[in-house]
Amino acid sequence: MKPENIFSALSALRQEGRLRQVQDLRMETASLGTDREGKRYIVFNSNDYLGMTHAKEVQEAAAKAVRFGTGSGGARLTSGAAFELSDLEKEIADFKHTEDAVIFNTGYMANLGVLYALAGKGDVIFSDELNHASIVDGCRISKAETAV
Asked: Is the Cα torsion angle 126, 118, 89, 106 positive or negative in sign?
């Protein structure tokens, strides 16, 4: 779309009732949020399936971890990784009886990384048409043929 057409396209979406906007919520649990006016909502689209983002133990561990900073400031291969992250990967590998394990920072990155690592030119990925965009993107970057 050309930049000069953006405002008219947004106006058309607004008139059709299809203009989406971010709705701010203060999340109280993985499935309960409150808006700025105090109205409470049940949230059905959370990716926090286990409700761990608001678990007391997770919040306490996060508060303790902040003393080490909030990240390396770059990619692990160039900037290094926190001892705790490497230790966790080793623990998971031992638990799973595997040589190694890798922690991804998001599900999106996991889908990209796994598909890129396991599939390539000459392979075929069978993908559901309703798959998340991260799986679609993972299929694309893998260079494998994708059958939807």
From this structure: negative
How large is the C-alpha radius of gyration of the chain? 21
Q: Which of 29, 85, 79 is nearest to 56 (CA)?
A: 29
pTM value?
A: 0.64
Q: CA angle 12-15-18, nearest 5°?
A: 80
Q: With beta carbons less than 8 A apart as the criterion, state whether 148 and 128 touch.
A: yes
Side chain identity at residue 147, one-letter code: A
Task: Give 15-67 pLDDT, tens digit per residue.
Answer: 999 999 888 999 999 899 999 999 999 998 888 888 898 999 999 999 998 88
User: Exposed/middle/buried for 144, CB within 10 Å: 0-12, 13-18, 19+?
Assistant: buried
